[in-house]
Amino acid sequence: MPYPPPQPKLGVVFNYGVFPTLLALSTLSRFAGSQAAGAAPIFRNRFACLSPYLPNLPSLPIPPFQKKIIFAFMINDTFRHKGLRSRLVDELRGKGVGSEAVLRAINVVPRHLFLDSSFVKLAYKDIAFPIGAGQTISQPSTVARQTQLLEVLPGQKVLEVGTGSGYQAAVLGEMGIDLYSIERQAELYKKCCQMLPSLGYSKIHLFLGDGYEGLPDMAPFDAILVTAGAEEIPAKLLLQIKIGGVMVVPIGSKVQMMTRIRRLSEEEFEQEEFGECAFVPMLNGINQ
Ligand code: SAH
Predict the structure, then answer these.
(1) CATH architecture of the region 130-277
(2) In degrees, to the nearest 5, what angle opens at C-alpha 158 toward C-alphas 211 and 278?
(3) What confidence tier does 74 reach under pLDDT thresholds 50, 70, 90?
(4) What distance lies between CA 239 and its chain's CA centroid?
(5) Three-state SS for 15?
(6) Pick the catalytic residue: 99, 138, 165, 198?
(7) What is the model's pTM?
(8) What does the domain layout of the chain look like in residue ranges?
(9) Rg (Cα) of the chain, in Å, rounded?
(10) Of 23-37, 183-197, 204-218, which gets the smallest average pLDDT?
(11) From the CB of 230, is ligand 1 less than 6 Å away?
């Protein structure tokens, strides 16, 4: 979404004066949870109309502490969103997603807050969507299938390549995974550094870097998930899988084959294929 945004709603904050508004927000946030807890949801709803601008907040010229407060108040996850999510979960179940742990996470994570605009209805349809920097958020059934293929349990250590919008990361965070996620686009990395902690996923470790290199200092991982299409199996990542662990990676150029590689021993790997898919390409280097 271009900045300044085309709609005047962000002007609400600026027209009334950004500092009085921030003062009011910070005072209220101090009281929330104590005697004025009841007022917080009302106040939150007043500012709910700003939620489409959430992804632009990191780039606004506002001090970081105030940004955190605004962020907290802009998060808008209503019964309507919850209803749409539960319909999406039913749809995914119908499409053969069987892992209750994955479906539970998808039922909880507010996908609409990871999109660049407020197309709420589209957020809960089983489609991919642009997230900025020419990248896309994977469609929910792809997120569900890839996550299922990882076969991970709470507490396990997982590396994700391609943080993108942070949605897949939030799904894994919701499942209790100790997640390390790398993104090569600085713009997306910065958004996620703001977005994920505000949604409560503060334990996810985010890195700006080239996923082809992986994170050798943090390796080995119980599982590695690549959410971009790699022309060939990323060799350095193979060596960062724990013995017995897996890497799920789409392999190919225009169309890819969803591939799961299991590390059997130091040097032995087993490969399985799970059908065609289409991801944005996995590219080399960092884009500042
Ligand atoms: N998991 C993401 C999907 C993002 S699309 C989500 O839930 O939204 C794939 C992402 O991979 C893009 O953001 C792209 O910038 C990133 N990417 C591509 N090549 C990469 C690389 N070598 N290292 C890290 N990230 C990469």
Answers:
(1) 3-Layer(aba) Sandwich (3.40)
(2) 55
(3) low
(4) 25
(5) helix
(6) 138
(7) 0.80
(8) 11-74, 130-277
(9) 20
(10) 23-37
(11) no
